[in-house]
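Quick one, T. Sequence first:
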Amino acid sequence: MEVILELLIEIFVVGVVEFAKSKKANNLLRFIIMAFAIFIVVTLFYVSYVLRDNVWEMIVALIFASISGIYTYHLHKEFRKVDM
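C-alpha cells:
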C-alpha cells in the first residue's frame, strides 16, 4: 500500500515539476514548486528509513526518492538559466 502511495506522489511531483518548467509559471510559483519537490524527496527518504524492515519497499522508496532528486536538480538548473 505504501509503495502505491509513493508511486502516486512521484507521478504528481513529476507533473508539478513539468508545469514549473513551462512558461506559464512565474518565479515565485517555481520557487514554491521546487521547495515542495525537495519536501517530497525528504519525505520519501524518511519513509524508506521507517520501512527499513521490509527491504524491497525500502529499495523502491529510495528509487522514487532518487528520481525526485534528479527532477529537483534539473528544475534548479532550469531556474538558474531563467534568472540569468
